[in-house]
Amino acid sequence: VIDELVALLGERAVSTSESVLDQHANDPSHHPPHAPDVVVYPESTAEVARVLSWANERGVPVVPFGAGTSLEGHVIPTHGGISLDLSRMDRVLDVRAADLQAVVQPGVLRSALNAAAGGHGLWFPVDPGADASLGGMAATNAGGTTTVRYGGMRTNTLALEVVLADGTVLRTGSRTVKTSAGFDLRGLFVGSEGTLGVITELTLRLWGIPEHAVAARAAFPSLEAACRTAAAIVGAGIAATRIELLDAFTVRAVNAYKGTTYDEAPTLFLEFGGSEVGVAGDVEAAAELARWEGCEEFQYERETEARARLWEARHHVLFALVHGSPGKLHKSTDVCVPISELAAAVAHARDSADAAGLASSIIAHAGDGNYHVLFMLDPDDREELEAADRLNAEIVEWALARGGTCTGEHGIGLGKLGYLEREHGDLVPYLREVKRVFDPNGILNPGKTVPLDTANTVRLS
Ligand SMILES: Cc1cc2nc3c(=O)[nH]c(=O)nc-3n(C[C@H](O)[C@H](O)[C@H](O)COP(=O)(O)OP(=O)(O)OC[C@H]3O[C@@H](n4cnc5c(N)ncnc54)[C@H](O)[C@@H]3O)c2cc1C
Question: Can you spell out the DSSP letters for 310-364?
């Protein structure tokens, strides 16, 4: 197998070194690792097509790998085979400033796209915190802190080039911001988690960098008060760029890790962007809504550096928790509820976690109704793992009963397969059919995203 891959792409593209295999066996979560047999680094669409058509003929599993930051076991090659690492396809091919668009290869990191777009006064706002690859972000339909204003990856992806399992190259979508040309396969490949095809090129929307931005912190007497304020800001049509919730446990962890001195209370981290006059009005209206819920003061971060420090602190929440729990691994819930349910949902999650005796942090993209309970778990402590699983299930059930979903942004991967069946059991047979159309031999990221039936199981001998 290895010799044939070397013959296909040359030695520079193929690695079986132990450290490289180890790097591709894990994600940052608690899911148990499993190494691929080989890591392949294509440098062009043609090379991706060559590897896939070869693997398809031999029934060899292929797991696309972007930056490896996904959280539900997505990139773990549970069936062995090839980890297809797209990091060498890392060119920003075009920035079409007049159309507010960029064309990129899948391995471009979001920081690199922002560096290229920034020179034109533009940015790509989708921000999952980690410096993920744009191919991986599209494949998971990532969202993040700015989704409340700009939408997630599906909203911001105009067109894709995709290589199917048999090596066929498709182009879907267009350079226009709207199209009604038949079924939306672009929207299907976004969020397909490497199970339907390999994304080899993306045309993405860019946005003007707001002329003026203000960030603020607002501490509240309760989690519910903070959530109600978030809902009120969204309901009032205030143009907030970010509305992020941290519970008191999380703020304490951040203070300990970053050396900040933020009030250790349920807190909204907010950002507003636009013209100076518009932002001033938005901030005033949001501060008034916060006051009604018992927030005594908006702490403003107007300077670029102070704003960057605030958002760095928010993005480093996971590192702060890891730092505070040496030897433990992280597990996160990702439910999303209609925003009117957020306050009750977060209070329910906090009470349930406390009742289960599990130290946990709650953060939320509060403007989207999407919240995460983060547990730090000892991988050898069976009881702790089971308690976290029970609690996760309870939180998902609570959300589903109120019109929510088991995953707002992280995706299904391995970790949410059971919950997908719980949420959309009636759709699963259709999802399997879709999988068969694009990947009839089941080689692409087998065992992820679509609950398997035995006919579709692939194993590398
Ligand atoms: C600290 C931290 C914070 C995070 N916060 C958020 C958040 O706020 N919002 C959020 O949405 N996510 C968040 N995540 C999760 C993660 O960053 C996202 O899921 C991200 O989109 C994954 O991108 P990646 O490049 O790392 O993809 P990978 O992890 O490498 O891959 C993810 C999936 O996409 C597939 N894939 C990768 N590249 C391609 C390709 N070119 N073609 C087809 N399939 C491909 C893989 O097979 C896999 O199934 C966070 C992660 C961390 C570590």
Answer: HHHHHHTHHHHHHHHSTT-EEEE---B--GGGHHHHHHHHHHHHHHTT--EEEEE
